[in-house]
Design goal:
CATH architecture of the largest domain in chain A: Orthogonal Bundle
CATH topology of the largest domain in chain A: Tetracycline Repressor, domain 2
Shape of chain A: flat
Largest sheet of chain A: none
Low-confidence stretches of chain A: none
Mean pLDDT of chain A: 92
Oligomer: homodimer
Distance between the termini of chain A: 65 Å
Radius of gyration of chain A: 20 Å
Chain lengths: 198, 198
């Protein structure tokens, strides 16, 4: 047995290399990943069952940064705290987002967050169907907002086609740091108001 | 001058090849695109100024499928109709979404939709700052929902960690076609209710 000339392969190294590829290119393939790690594709399969497991490892990296609040406060505050932390985590990995929604969730940290949301909404007397709809709404809004948080400070370019009403709206936000954060807080308030009580 | 052995290069062919790459891999690079079109990178630059223009061509493909309603109805109905059509278009191109939010918007069809939203909200007496916030909320929710529309029918896998409250919620939606559509309509109603009047 020779001494290994590269660090020993592990699920952790595989996940980090896949994350680097996703961040740089928007995706990963098993052959690309093997090339990046300087191993054969078959060595990868000694550590992971395939692409789907690697996607779950990536989800776990992003979700492990979500901080869950104490769950015994008023439901709207608990939900808002989870949404803020969830958005912050995914804003770090915008190109990961379409991969996350393309595969069924099973990572333990993700399930923990969804458990916390479902428990909080159930305690607030929302029924199971409403709970699922609200969770989906939270996911859709948070992931869209995480993409916006990673967007340029000025997400709309100048164009001769911009009409006066849109120009007036744009003038209130353009070139302002914190634009995406403010828009997220506005959306969060609208959402919670719109959900109302059970 | 010999007869060209491949179809003549055009911005349209470049955009379609870039869309194929994004759909297959999540992104594109100029060298990959040149290889796919069997031309040199420098030939590409005879037709497009660079990556940013290609991204706008892709946005234009997705946005040209958005159908704008008559703008003279009640504002909430106009906004809902735009949101439904906007989501349907992007649900066809989920892996395009992070590229869309990473570059400033200038494609004519996109500007036309934002003009319609701004005009509708302004006529409904929302101020320019609220108009920008509502437009951003619409973008975030619609793009997140478009990703969800492209998600598997059962977006949550089974896991031993699922707690009873989350399991009860999941049981109401799993394996049901139309799950994402229903959740979008629920979210749309919540959003419009939460926005309320100006």
């Amino acid at each position: 047995m020779g001494r290994p000339s590269v660090p020993i392969l592990s699920t952790d190294r595989i996940a980090r290399a896949a994350m680097d590829l996703v961040t740089a290119t928007g995706g990963f393939t098993i052959p690309d990943l093997a090339r990046k790690l300087k191993v054969s594709p078959s060595s990868l399969y000694n550590h992971v069952t395939g692409r789907e497991q690697i996607v779950e490892l990536l989800r776990e990296i992003a979700m492990s940064e979500v901080e869950l609040p104490e769950l015994d406060g008023p439901w709207a505050e608990v939900v808002a705290a989870i949404m803020r932390s969830y958005r912050r985590s995914y804003a770090r990995y915008p190109r990961l987002i379409p991969l996350m929604t393309a595969y069924p969730v099973s990572s333990p940290h993700a399930v923990e967050m969804y458990n916390a949301l479902a428990l909080t909404l159930t305690r607030a007397s929302f029924g199971p169907d409403e709970t699922l709809h609200i969770i989906t709404l939270i996911d859709n809004f948070v992931l869209g907002s995480a993409l916006d948080a990673a967007a340029p400070e000025t997400p709309w370019g100048s164009s001769p086609d911009v009409a006066p009403e849109f120009a007036a709206a744009l003038a209130t936000g353009d070139h302002r740091p914190g634009r995406a954060d403010e828009a997220f807080e506005f959306g969060l308030t609208v959402l919670l108001r719109g959900i109302g009580g059970p």
